[in-house]
Records
---
Amino acid sequence: MPTQSLLPVLPEIILLAAACTILLVDAFLPDARRHVGFWLAQLTLLVGAWVTLTTFDPEPALALSALVVDDMLADLLKFFSYFAVSLMLFYSRGYLAARGLFRGETFVLTLFTLLGMMVMISANSFLTLYLGLELQALSLYAMVAMHRRSNDASEAAMKYFVLGALASGMLLYGMSMVYGATGSLDIQRIAEAVLRGSDNRVILTFGLVFIVSGIAFKLGAAPYHMWVPDVYHGAPTAVTLLIGTAPKLAAFAFILRLLGVALAGLEFDWQGMLMVLSLLSMILGNVIAIAQTNVKRMLAYSTIANMGFMLLGFLAANLNGYSAAMFYVVAYVLTSLASFGVVMLLSREGFEADLLEDFRGLNQRSPWWAFIMLLVMFSLAGIPPTVGFYAKFAVLEAAVAAGFTWLAVVAVLASLVGAFYYLRIVKLMYFDDATDTEPIAARLDNRVLLSANGLALLLFGILPQPLMGLCVIALLQSGFD
Amino acid sequence: MVPYLSLAIWVPIVAGLLVLAVGRDRDPGAARWIALFGALAGLLVTLPLWLHFDNGTAKMQFVEFADWVPRFDIHYFLGVDGISMLFVLLNSLMTVLVVWAGWEVIRERVAQYMAAFLIQSGLINGAFAALDAILFYAFFEAMLIPMYLIIGVWGGPNRVYAAVKFFLYTLLGSLLMLVGFIYLYNVSGTFSLLDWHLVPLALDVQILLFIAFFLSFAVKVPMWPVHTWLPDAHVEAPTGGSVILAAITLKIGAYGFVRFILPILPDASRYLSGFVITLSLVAVVYIGFVALMQGDMKKLIAYSSISHMGFVTLGFFLFSQLGIEGGLVQMISHGFVSAAMFLCVGVMYDRMHSRQIADYGGVVNTMPKFAAFMMLFAMANSGLPATSGFVGEFLVILAAVKVNFWLGFLAATTLILGAAYTLWMYKRVIFGAIANDHVRQLTDLGRREFWLLAALAALVLAMGVYPKPFVDVMHATVADLLAHVAQSKL
């Protein structure tokens, strides 16, 4: 149903216009009024969410000569992305202000990152997919380096940029091979060509290898994970929060459209590759995380392990697996938001609160935040009644149903190792005495949202059906069955 | 109809949350009273389960059924039969006792302490009442969280090690079980335990599932050689934690054998019964000797628990009415006796801050009332007739002798070993001349401690003299279970 209407890309247009406006407005604002930019960014997200909701149509719609598609999957993921970015801005307001980063550039770059993610989510062609990815990545490179005087941040930005550029190159190389083999950049047409069984199978498989490598780089799956800990560690926590949350939603859409749709015909080839990535990520991520003393690094390795789990659902290569992986990503993003949210809540001027030691005796200082962090840790470890349990359960079910029972066994053993370091944070918070007696101060909106975020982990852990059902419906409506 | 089982689960949990919300560290009184009322209310709502229970049927009673996660066909499916009903009651009763036992002893973070026990109580009731595998799993895992905190926050000097070991050990087993559950779901299309009882499974599949389930429940029981977390956990846990661990959480492991392993995997159970019986006998005999050598009272009782639980698993895998009923009776009796023993050690520890047998001697001179109570419990722990400890052990030995004389003989050594380690400890701690000045200054039981132990003493004696009401509840269910296990599922 090709249409010339611009309605499907309206949210992106609004976002672009708003980002440019904020950039202009900010130039005329005195330092004391920086919060205007902040609220404008929040307003943009609200309007974006509202437009996405009001223009919602369960039927997929193509726009801009079929370069982008607006299906229910895209709408749902975009909606979650607005939400994640909005929370990120709320959580990091105090943190940014204390470090002189509460500026227009931050909001503009954040919105551009979001725009890149939305383009990725809606992409229906390799070209759009790549453009979205680069827009997102370039904005993030800049954001990581934003803290100019920090050596760690500069190093992280450099690493991120060099490795990210390498990954983009690999991805592009793989895409060009697929283009060569199928003669098209359009995802649907590639899918048809691959399913028809072209004669260029070798080139296709060769291209697939590069594409999967590129994806693994972007996702931070082992053995392409080297940048993740350094970037998570070096970047300002607010930026780490951004990198660790919404982009995972976009990455899910990215993999789904590349492998699940365009190259669905090569299922047996990429299943094997994802299996290796998934296994290595789960084992490496969980084992190395044990040795970390920095929370941000630990959470970075935990991300690697979690992406391995997500791929575990994905490699089932059916609706059951995709919806499990999608639920996993959404649950992970929700948990991740709360985890970095707490880290930033504990930080203050000149104090990052990013060492494990900084969590010592949190239960004495504030039982409530200790409890929220407890929920986060048990959710990451996959212990009921938190949402992390159902996320792990769903991907394990998908893997077993697809006949990979042994993978599921390895996965649970890896998550047992993972439980060890998550428990350590709980141990520090509850079993040890506090050494830091500084009161925990934060804005009311931050506290309310972070509390709601933490309790949502419990709520969706007890009643996971709405979210799970939504993932299934979105995928069904978007043509997966 | 009143949803008694839901009440049994949610009343303590809500009470626990209330305690957390109301309790303040400066004024622990409110937290204590709310916790006590919450625990009593939790016990009260379980009484109808006993009163309205129909002994004549093996069917699930008080069934509640509702959709929970339709995406995976998971239901909020509760029900109890003759096996599980008594444990819901036992657990609710023990919760009242531990709340009361921690009344003055716990001075730091009282609200969190009480709340942890109440929430755990609800979760444990849930595990006993759940008839949906994932619902069971959710309760089974979630109950690790409060216990982890109880050991780690209010425990002894080596509490961190013990808490982490406890958590990871149990998690290891249960994660493999989760994969087993998912596998069964893929075979049968449901998570309902009752449907799983009827699913045909090939022997090799049954054996793999057996390994996954067995690991989970054997760790929880705990069976030799995966028992090493228990002595650590018991020694480091506060008295209340030890009581719940010994009296209730161990029982969930044994309960798993009769609810999951025997009926779902009957062929593998028969095929591997020799293996389980061997492990059980090792626990009974070898761990009995290990208990003999302990210098720490809590450790001694912990090993004695492992030895007694070996009796339970032994009884289950003899596949006879006597054996299974004996095992179940032993579970309940051990719930009373081990709780009482840990409370006794707690009473002494609160005064002396030592659990070493060598630090005591002649306690009877300063604490006569206490010595009398502990005498009774020590006797019950060694299986003296007319105490509850005798009934279960006798039934299991009887069943074992029917199968094979030497099996019964080895099992019966527990009567000697149990008496040896318990009474020898009793002699060294209680009798003799006053060993040192600390013992000389001991004060006898306070009112709270007296009634706490008196309640348990009454239960131990009642069950020892007249076990019929307990056994009657089980008859129909156990007979049905045996008939079911006798049928091959191949």
Note: The mean pLDDT of chain B is 87.
---
Amino acid sequence: MTATTLALAMLVTAMALCLARLIRGPHLGDRIVAGDTIALILINLVAVLGVRANTRLYSDVGAVVAILGFIGTVAAARYLRGRHPLA
Amino acid sequence: MRESLIPAIVLVGAALSLIAALGLHRFADAYARLHAATKAATLGLMLTLAAAILAHGTDGREIATLLFVFMTSPVGAHMVAKAMYDSGYRPWEEAKPASRRRRR
């Protein structure tokens, strides 16, 4: 199925762009947003792999990554909020 | 019908994720990057999960993931934006023309 191959290529490119922002991002908020987007793209990638392999086995992975990504975003946002006012 | 619909939905979802990552890479300011990344990536993820449900059915896990992301992604984005604003990060302002700047 060539459509899923193209979709996987797009998602890997998107994840590379997010990784560049995660490394470069001048502010800590940029890095938090990049990590959140990487979690979303990872769920997307797992869903596309499930469509490609025509199996439901991977849907647990998506649910777990969604929950862990949200918890990580909230924890990082609370850390950012509690920092020094000029940071 | 369904066999031609599923690749189209998968491609549109992946393209939306790519657009979100491009916005995250190119925009000027952390708030603009947040705006670009959160909404487009969430819509792309919902489309891809819908394609997965169409492709091989569901036993509730895909629907649970879809609803969870749909509810928590705006909450996380709002928390990050509020934390950025409270920590003193001001939004980017475009350089104004001289006539408009003098009026202030």
Note: The radius of gyration of chain B is 19 Å.
